[in-house]
């Protein structure tokens, strides 16, 4: 899979007050990418397309270069204390993604160039919690690796965190474009995680992302660069023959990591869930999806901000958790399962 390249770029004028903003403007001009000006991402207009469906697809290849104005970081439980905001939006087309609703009518990708302000705020959060370690998640609202070959914001953040005694960085990706990150001075303070799933899920619900084999090749590179390595199995989805599908996943994962140090390996397990608003958006954007979203087959669970989600019923959820943990113990007995949710 080729690295992401936007077809259209919007730049906020104030972004050019920052070195990264100017660097990106020069880069896209030299690449011949169309550049437009916008006062803010909320004022982006004119994304091409004859209808909402076409505009959505084109928005996924549109990049907005701007400032992160809200410097209060969101919480990011259970994976970290805070979400560090480097970007918003993703070029992938994962049918189940929660960004379908949180980004609403603005599915374009935004990258923030005022990294100094973001790092200063992260320092404040770390000082508040000393001597406890403060973990920052960099992929809450985006797949940051998917655009970092263009921005290097993530690489700068890895090296920023590598100098902190009381900070750690975490992020997850479905992309394999990691080569520029391999020489980053991470000092073991960044956990590099890959999202993995069964063949059925990747084939049917994850278009526009790197293949499973590409992700595994990238994981080997990352481990050999001495990053702490982890995998997120998400969403765990009960498709036909799901037990066999997930067993094969861990078998392939085990074979691909032979010869790599996995003493510090972690797994995070997330069952499939959806909200009513997400179901409507997914049906509109991916009308032929095979994604099962029948509320009668699920358990309703209250979520943040009063928006409930539909998860598997207790018996099925217990079956998922028991089965996946058994596979992990069989193939990676030294690994830590950090949570199941």
Summarize the structure.
The protein has helices spanning 19-31, 52-59, 99-102, 115-129, 145-151, 153-162, 199-205, 212-224, 242-256, 276-285, 314-331, and strands at 8-11, 34-37, 62-66, 75-76, 80-83, 87-88, 109-112, 134-137, 167-173, 190-196, 229-236, 266-271, 298-301, 309-312, 336-340. The chain is of the alpha/beta class and 341 residues long. It is globular and about 55 Å long.
In terms of topology, how is this protein built?
Elements: E1 8-11, H1 19-31, E2 34-37, H2 52-59, E3 62-66, E4 75-76, E5 80-83, E6 87-88, H3 99-102, E7 109-112, H4 115-129, E8 134-137, H5 145-151, H6 153-162, E9 167-173, E10 190-196, H7 199-205, H8 212-224, E11 229-236, H9 242-256, E12 266-271, H10 276-285, E13 298-301, E14 309-312, H11 314-331, E15 336-340
Parallel strand pairs: 1-2, 1-3, 3-7, 5-8, 8-9, 9-10, 10-11, 11-12, 12-15
Antiparallel strand pairs: 4-5, 6-7, 13-14
Helix pairs in contact: 9-11
Please state the average pLDDT score.
95
User: Judging from the principal axes of the Cα atoms, what is the shape?
Assistant: globular
What is the CATH class designation? Alpha Beta
Query: Could you estimate the helical fraction of the residues in percent?
Result: 25-40%
Major beta sheet summary: 8 strands, mixed
């Amino acid at each position: 899979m080729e690295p992401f390249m936007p077809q259209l770029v919007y730049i906020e004028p104030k972004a050019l007050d920052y070195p990264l903003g100017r660097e990106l403007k020069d880069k896209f001009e030299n690449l011949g990418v169309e550049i437009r000006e916008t006062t803010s991402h909320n004022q982006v207009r004119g994304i091409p397309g004859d209808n909402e469906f076409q505009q959505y697809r084109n928005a996924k290849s549109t990049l907005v270069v701007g400032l992160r104005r809200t410097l209060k970081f969101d919480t990011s439980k259970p994976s970290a204390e805070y979400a560090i905001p480097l970007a918003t939006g993703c070029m992938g087309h994962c049918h189940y993604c929660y960004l379908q609703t949180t980004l609403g009518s603005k599915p374009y990708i935004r990258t923030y160039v005022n990294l100094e302000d973001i790092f200063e705020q992260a320092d404040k959060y770390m000082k508040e919690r000393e001597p406890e370690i403060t973990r920052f998640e960099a992929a809450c609202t985006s797949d940051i690796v998917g655009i970092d070959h263009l921005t290097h914001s993530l690489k700068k953040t890895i090296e920023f965190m590598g100098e902190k005694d009381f900070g750690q960085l975490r992020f997850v990706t479905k992309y394999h474009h990691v080569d520029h990150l391999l020489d980053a001075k991470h000092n073991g303070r960044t956990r590099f995680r890959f999202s993995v799933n069964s063949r059925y899920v990747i084939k049917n619900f994850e278009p526009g992302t790197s293949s499973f084999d590409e992700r595994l090749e990238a994981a080997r590179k990352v481990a050999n660069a001495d990053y702490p390595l982890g995998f997120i199995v998400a969403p765990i989805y009960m498709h036909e023959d799901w037990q066999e599908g997930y067993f094969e996943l861990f078998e392939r994962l085990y074979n691909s990591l032979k010869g790599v140090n996995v003493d510090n390996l972690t797994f995070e397990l997330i069952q499939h869930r959806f909200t009513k608003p997400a179901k409507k958006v997914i049906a509109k954007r991916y009308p032929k999806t095979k994604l099962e979203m029948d509320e009668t087959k699920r358990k309703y669970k209250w979520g943040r901000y009063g928006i409930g989600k539909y998860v598997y019923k207790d018996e099925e959820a217990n079956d998922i958790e028991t089965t996946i943990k058994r596979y992990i113990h069989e193939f990676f007995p030294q690994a830590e399962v950090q949570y199941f949710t």
